[in-house]
Amino acid sequence: MSATENLQPQTNTNPQTSANPHASIEQVEAAWQDPKLANVLYHDWEAGTYDEKWSISFDQRCIDYARDRFTHVAGDQGWPYGKALELGCGTGFFLLNLKLAGVLDEGHVTDLSPGMVGVAIRNAEGLGFAVEGRVADAESIPYPDNSFDLVLGHAVLHHIPDVEQALREVLRVLKPGGRLVFAGEPTTYGDYIARRLSRLIWWATTRATRLNRLSAWERPKAELDESSRAAALEAVVDLHTFDPADLRRQALRAGAVDVRTTTDELTAAWFGWPVRTFEAAVPKHKLGMRWAMFAFHNWQRLHALDSKVLARVVPAKLFYNVEITGTKPE
């Protein structure tokens, strides 16, 4: 089975047998050999809780974050872009917040996951505007040549099997002079450190909460097992990490010009990933608003340290996120 066959999830009478409770056992087994199908199943499974999991919102906090990530690599010239497309839109975090920030006018979203496209459309409606959404493969974008002024994505390239082919498609659907912007992609070194910190925190937290005096902090075994299954399937959908220079070369080979990469988050990632892992390992009701504000404000402080101080002295490839921009030749 390929990812383009039977994209709609099937009913599963035994949800404990797979990471996606709406997928059939056969689909999940096939997904281990088909990363595109794995992306559909995993992200359909995550669609309903994705915003909560990643603290995604459409208020000033996330508007500022999305705008800052965009301008960090692409600058603040040329706004607003008339017609924009987001690849791998998820629930619409990047495009919708950039529209709220005034970066773009007309929005279109695509994702391999029907569930994610549906949530992105509903999020847009909740904000008072409409976007067009399509279930689509980034390696074969279903729009005509020269359709968009801007094509963007956040944390999507590392899910795409053939990144260079996707970038060629991006350039095909861009108008001459149009811009591509991708952010939130893991660097090879940054991902290595983040995953090991996360595994350490998961191991320490799940074992500590088994002690009698901390048993109230232990998540039910069924929930932990489900998280472990999700993490296992996540390993199939996370296909790449990037060296910034290599990513730039891929964009140049695809035909982009004026290509530039930047990197972001060092100590902020060392703090943020363990925090996320701890949050996933304990019952949700144990962590309230005070914890959320502690986590957010400390991440902000470390992010400022990274961008204002460490970025001047630490090699770019050691940071966690890489961002890339370029344009289609006139």
Describe this structure in words.
Helix content is 47%, strand content 16%. It contains twelve helices and seven strands. Helix 5 links the parallel strand 1 (81-86) and strand 2. The termini are far apart. Mean pLDDT is 90; it is low at 1-19.
Helix/strand/pairing category: alpha/beta
Number of helices: 12
Flag low-confidence runs.
1-19
* Fraction in beta strands: 15-25%
**Averaging pLDDT over every residue, what do you get?**
90
Cα gyration radius (Å)? 20 Å
Number of strands: 7
Major β-sheet, in short? 7 strands, mixed
Task: Label the overall shape.
Answer: globular
Key phrases:
330 residues, 16% strand, disordered N terminus
Helix and strand arrangement:
Elements: H1 25-31, H2 35-46, H3 50-53, H4 60-74, E1 81-86, H5 93-100, E2 104-111, H6 114-127, E3 132-135, E4 148-154, H7 163-173, E5 174-186, H8 188-208, H9 221-237, H10 244-254, E6 257-264, H11 267-281, H12 289-308, E7 321-327
Helix pairs in contact: 1-2, 2-9, 4-5, 7-10, 8-11, 11-12
Short summary of the structure?
The protein has 330 residues and is an alpha/beta fold. 47% of the residues lie in helices and 16% in strands.
